[in-house]
Amino acid sequence: MAAPEAWRARSCWFCEVAAATTMEATSREAAPAKSSASGPSAPPALFELCGRAVSAHMGVLESGVWALPGPILQSILPLLNIYYLERIEETALKKGLSTQAIWRRLWDELMKTRPSSLESVTCWRAKFMEAFFSHVLRGTIDVSSDKRLCDQRFSPLLHSSRHVRQLTICNMLQGATELVAEPNRRVLETLASSLHTLKFRHLLFSDVAAQQSLRQLLHQLIHHGAVSQVSLYSWPVPESALFILILTMSAGFWQPGSGSLPCRLCGEASRGRAPSRDEGSLLLGSRRPRRDAAERCAAALMATRRKSEVKQMPRAVPTTRVTRRSTQESLAVSGTDSKRELYPPATSYEASGTKQPSSAPAATTSASSSTSSKRAPASSASQPKPLKRFKRAAGKKGARTRQGSGAESEDLYDFVFIVAGEKEDGEEMEIGEVACGALDGSDPSCLGLPALEASQRFRSISTLELFTVPLSTEAAVTLCHLLSSWVSLESLTLSYNGLGSNIFRLLDSLRALSGQAGCRLRALHLSDLFSPLPILELTRAIVRALPLLRVLSIRVDHPSQRDNPAVPENAGPPSHIIGDEEIPENCLEQLEMGFPRGAQPAPLLCSVLKASGSLQQLSLDSATFASPQDFGLVLQTLKEYNQSLKRLSFHDMNLADCQSEVLFLLQNLTLQEITFSFCRLFEKRPAQFLPEMVAAMKGNSTLKGLRLPGNRLGNAGLLALADVFSEDSSSSLCQLDISSNCIKPDGLLEFAKRLERWGRGAFGHLRLFQNWLDQDAVTAREAIRRLRATCHVVSDSWDSSQAFADYVSTM
What are the Low complexity biased-composition ranges (predicted)? Predict the structure, then answer.
């Protein structure tokens, strides 16, 4: 009896509040009021008056409201503001109540935007609070304009921060300064534990103060937080300093501008134990016994940067030259057996066993102590030396030799990655000539390459995405420099970045990363307008560089620039990138390729497929082969070498002359899903080909999904396809996509009647987008009604007048 008594007690309490509210409302409305032209409005119900009073005094009544019975609480929930509605969520769930409809209504009324049709919203509360946080941070919403958003007892940013999983920073870094301000310290601490994805959109030039705020923000959210993904979108003219700042912080580096620690958390960590030697090797890369040209170039670049820092110090340090031995000792090597590596990140104190430097000046002193005994006067050190292309220093003896087969190339790649002049240990090299000869006069200190021996290493992200962010040489060098040791990176997306010949830097850095112990990179998405390498050669190079890759998506919109007059004749790719040797076996499970125009060499594609025995999903977009026989060679390779293949997709390919090859595919008993999207399947001999295709499908018991959008199937083709579901068929097809196939309502109705006549049970999903169903809406609705008895139908309202060309082609 305890529960009913408690229920009655809470109900009586609620009635008392209702009575007091009614008396107050009655006294307020006792004064005569003028009636409007439309007549007096109906007075609010007693229950609504009570609910409003309770909502207005939740500060003192909250615990009592939480204890109300479910039926009463359900009527009060829509009257609460967003803060108390969020706080009462757990109690409402325990009483079997849902607030999703309330949050959805709040979204429609306050946010006034419609979610994408591709987005599946699982929690409207989290979606609303996340969007509310972003609007408040940017100042695009006025919380005082609506009583549901305004409550003096709550901080909008703090209350909504724990729901933020994704944060977008736009334009001139709005919001970064506010988040790192002292009043919002708790907000930033909450974000550090809740935020997973950080996005940058349409960034503009920013001032130094904004960049310093962003630096602190990234340090808290990435180095001490839970952010695992950083994405940059639509940055037509990237600001070098800001771009390099985002990259280096995402990679886990903190370059102190002074001896102070980044934050109080770092101060607490510094009082604990220091990282061990093994941990440092894991973070910054392992070592191997020799250095190659790229490593010496990277060491010289960083030594030059330290030289620039020394010039800015009050006391000039007389050092302008550095020996090859000391340059090597300034940077440890990464563990890989490849012939060329890019910018290994291990520090000089790891290689020599000396004590780790505590600050940038200490690192400079260490570099100075290892210079040659022949030094220039201090006065000459203060004068900047003009940079020039690398050449052997005047007056130096010794033959110039190079390693590797690309010794004769003198393009930008060669100058940055290959130091011309393999010298004996101890022979001097001029820093300006070595480090920046290929940069045509650009100051090496402006390259932005982080001096890793002077940087602190923290936690780094696992997913990096760059969409439409043009990469200059400076930006590409920095990115590749960081990638070569970014062992925590699991997914990399580079989309329309204008890499050009920088793709060779990228391949070398990926090869170096693959040789690092603990490399986690498993997904690479690469797309661009042009590529200096044909797409199949580029694919082979990537697969060789990253044999542990699981997902590879690569797209090139236009043919290779190899014959482009703007590209130097000697700018060809190094031989170790496009070697003709057989590709070793890899771990690819998903391969997606988007081809430029022009016939593709089938043997190159077959060589990739043969080495990908674990392939489960293959997608070819706009692929063109010289003959149907070449396409048949690819299909035969798939059957022999890719026994695990489950999903196969072809898009925008002319397969009108490859009907026998299509039948060969449909008879493959390992495939579970096949897509022929806009492949012109039925352009030739449809009357003969359709029965053959249906017969092949009726005998295939493993095929679960067939997608045929954009193949001009028509009514006749649809009715022929209905025979796949006949009683004598062994097909187990459960997903069928016949979008954009010139299907009319009468043909769809007849298709539905045949399925009913054969008594076929529910077979899954049927997609009908962009067909001519608007020509007879009544018949179309009847057809869809009948089809929904056997399958889940997905359709749309589409104006078929847009498809006049398709209509003419099927007349």
Answer: 354-385
